[in-house]
Amino acid sequence: MRLKLFNSVVVFATAMLIMPSTHACEEKNKNGLMSECRALVTGYQIIHGEAPQLYACREAVNKEIGGSDAHFYFGRVLYQHGYIEEAIAEFRKARSGGSSKGALALGYMIERGVLSPREAARSEMEFYQEAMGQNDPVAKIVKAIKLSYTLDPPGRRDMQRAKELFSEAEAQNHPAANFYLAELLRFPDGQLKSDLELAVLHYRKAAEGGVADAIEALEEMSEDTSMYEGVPIVYSSVVEGPLIIERP
Q1: d(CA 129, CA 139)
Q2: Domain layout of the chain by residue ranges
Q3: How many C-beta atoms surround the C-beta of residue 94 within 10 A?
Q4: Cα(200)–Cα(205) distance, integer angstroms
Q5: Which residues pair with 235 in a beta bridge?
Q6: Rama region for 121: left / alpha / beta (φ>0; ψ in -120 to 50; rest)
């Protein structure tokens, strides 16, 4: 297994969006507010603008878009701008509304050390398990990563169970699951059988889904990757942090 995938320091990059001012938000009509604030809350293209301006569309986000996932996406924007406490508050709102994304984010905040288990009244794995109970594919991938690579629980690596979880997430069309299935087949580590031909097929599915690491793996295997030149990169990294926080 390529350890660099699991030992690398994740730097959360932000992209570009001109942030709407409070006055601008107030003057938008209903459809305009929904459209502009939806772009804001999903957070795909955010930098530039000062973080306090993020609050300009908070009320519009809550009223026009609604839904517990909206709090997760808004929390992500705050997190990316360094507003950790405010981000955690939004993740809590997301979770209390039934969002598995919010539960996963809180678990990751504990794992990062910015939220204590005592303060959260549960461990990161309990949050991850909660999201798994909601059939969240990212939660399954995170659990499988821990079972197969990071030894959680310590000393109990279970590659077969990890493969089952990756397969479940693949059935839910998560491209990162294909990447990890390919890794297990390419680097079976004694518990599974190697199958390079099948590994290539999984890498290709992951590459088609915008997984940068899959394209790199295919290149390492001397496979043609020219067909992926126009494919948008959705997952620049498939380690746990980006999977949880930067999810579409």
Answers
A1: 7
A2: 22-133, 136-245
A3: 27
A4: 9
A5: 211
A6: left
d(CA 115, CA 176): 27
* pLDDT, tens digit (0-9, with 9 covering 90-100), for 88-115: 998 998 999 999 999 999 999 999 999 9
Angstrom distances, CA of residue 31 to CA of 28, 170, 191: 8, 36, 55
3-state SS of the chain: helix, strand, coil percent to 5?
65, 0, 35
Pairs from 164-167 (Cβ < 8 Å, separation ≥ 24):
165/140, 165/141, 166/140, 166/141
Taking domain 22-133, whether its CATH number is 1.10.10 is answered by: no
CATH 3.20.20.150 assigned to 136-245: no
Per-residue CA distances from 20 to 14, 42, 51, 83, 202 (Å): 17, 14, 11, 18, 41
Question: What is the reported pTM?
Answer: 0.76
Give dist(CA 224, CA 245) in Å, integer.
Answer: 31
Element at 159 (helix H, strand E): helix 159-171
- Secondary structure letter of residue 61 according to DSSP: I
pLDDT of residue 240: 92
Quote the Cα angle for 29-31-33, to 5°.
65
Span 199-226, pLDDT tens digits: 999 999 999 999 999 999 999 999 999 9
The gap from C-alpha 182 to its chain's centroid, in whole angstroms, comes to 19
Domain 22-133 shares a fold with domain 136-245: yes
Rounded to whole angstroms, the maximal C-alpha distance in the chain is 62
| CA neighbor of 247 nearest in space, from 144, 169, 167, 148 | 169
